[in-house]
Amino acid sequence: MEGFFGLALNIILTIYLVIDSKKHGKNPILWGILGFIFGLIALGIYLIKTDRKVIGWIVTILSIIGYLALILIVGLAILFAVVGFS
Asked: What is the pTM of this model?
């Protein structure tokens, strides 16, 4: 279920970036690919590039913090699986 949510979020971001990039004179194919692969980080950078800097920086920083937290949690899970809880 979580994988479906992430995929659906990336597809929605891709559609938004493709439609909105045409309005701002940006390459819609490039932003669509970046949005699908990188998700919220690409959205944050796009918002910064289209002069919506405050919300762009907020989205970018929060997504980077989220990805770092995910990496930390996965790393701790692997460490506990290898070493054990004792």
From this structure: 0.81
